[in-house]
Write a structure and sequence with these properties.
Oligomer: single chain
Radius of gyration: 33 Å
Shape: elongated
Distance between the termini: 70 Å
Largest sheet: 5 strands, antiparallel
Order of helices and strands: HHHEEEEEEEEEEEEEEEEEEEEEEEEE
Number of helices: 3
Length: 385
């Protein structure tokens, strides 16, 4: 039984007693109030009534009682010290949500045009993509599919095939680099790189495809359905049939999968970009929301090869970079990049990360060297920094 004259009993009595009159300590957190209470309330002395007659024998606690009392006293001292440390913000309190530590972001990026890196496709290029080996850039227009050899970006070589595709909305390449996968007004098609001939096609895909990723087994699709929603689907290249996996809600203005297929960025009609974890495409999880550019729509998106950088393009000729080192807490990376020559309609990172390709609304493609920090030869107006 707890005795009133034991250290723990005196503490209970002190906390139960009416607090002394005096100024209230303005502390909002429970730990601070507990420390203030311990400091403000005097510990009362034990007041045991003395019965008449001969004096009773003095109370001598047993060995077990002394051991238990010492243990409780020790725990009380430890608890008081931890509480005081928490109040002083030395330790996080269990009732207070600790902010995640920022481990430091990525360095600023610098882009500069590749000398001789302005490519003039036959017709008007609508989309572009690098091959998995990074040695070729493929541009696709209504009249032709062109492959640009960019092993030496300063001197790109072009080969043209007379097979294009109308109104391309999403493009990618197969993991083996042999097939260009494009979605547009004619459905989804797999075109042989080099000849441009159709390897397979799927014309029954519902809605407009905004992003695709060829995994080698199937093609993941993110598209805007006719009823205004965004859905994830898997297209079988052998059957030409797509099966619905899940829904994401609002209509996608533009979208892009990360190279590993674990993330998806979706821009809505208002310009805001939502990041999704689609490592399980049947159960996507919403993550961070990037703020929309003021007064503009987000028209194109691209992930870096390691998925740590997201580039967003808006209708005001501006490219913004986002550090996704902590996907739940993305941050702007450097200053926005404005191409005053022509509005950027789409972009892609090379698999090795050294190049960025952009396509403008004039239908021409441009190559940019990509570097970090002081590694780049910075040119004003041509680099986010």
């Amino acid at each position: 039984m707890l005795r009133a004259d034991s250290p723990l009993g005196r503490l209970v009595c002190a906390l139960a007693a009416r607090p002394p009159h005096g100024p209230v300590v303005p502390q909002a957190r429970p730990g601070a109030r507990l420390v203030a209470a311990l400091g403000a309330r005097p510990v009362p002395a034990p007041r045991a009534p003395v019965p008449p007659g001969p004096s009773p024998a003095p109370y001598r606690p047993s060995q077990r009682g002394r051991w238990l009392s010492g243990l409780l006293t020790g725990w009380l001292v430890v608890l008081t010290c931890l509480t005081a440390a928490a109040v002083q913000e030395v330790l996080p309190t269990p009732w207070q949500r600790a902010e995640p530590r920022r481990t430091g972001g990525l360095p600023a990026e610098h882009w500069r045009p590749v000398s001789g890196g302005r490519l003039a496709p036959r017709g008007r290029a609508d989309a572009l993509a690098f091959t998995p080996d990074g040695g070729s850039l493929v541009t696709i227009s209504r009249s032709a599919t062109e492959t640009w050899e960019v092993w030496d970006p300063e001197h790109p070589q072009r080969s043209v095939s007379p097979h294009g595709m109308r109104h391309v909305t999403a493009v990618g390449t197969s993991p083996d680099g042999r097939t260009l996968v494009a979605a547009g007004a004619e459905g989804v098609r797999g075109l042989a790189l080099g000849s441009g001939t159709t390897r397979w096609s799927a014309a029954g895909v519902s809605g407009q495809v905004k992003a695709l990723l060829d995994t080698g087994r199937e093609v993941l699709l993110a598209g805007a359905t006719p009823d205004g929603a965004t859905e994830l689907a898997a297209l079988g290249t052998q059957t030409g049939r797509a099966r619905r996996l899940s829904g994401l809600g609002r209509t996608a203005r533009s979208a892009q999968f990360s190279p590993d297929g674990r993330a998806l960025a979706v821009a809505d009609a208002g310009g805001a970009v939502r990041l999704w974890d689609v490592s399980d495409p049947r159960h996507p999880r919403a993550e961070a929301l990037l703020p929309p550019p003021s007064g503009h729509e987000t028209t194109a998106l691209a992930f870096s090869p390691d998925a740590r950088v997201l580039a967003t393009v808006d209708s005001g000729r501006t490219v913004r970079l986002w550090d996704l080192t902590e996907p739940a807490h993305p941050r702007a990376l450097g200053r926005p990049f404005e191409d005053r020559a022509e509005r950027v309609a789409g972009l892609a990172f090379s698999p090795d990360g050294r190049l960025v390709a952009t396509v403008g609304t004039d239908g021409a493609a441009n190559l940019w060297w990509r570097a970090h920090g002081a590694e780049a030869d910075v040119r004003p107006g041509a680099t986010p920094e």
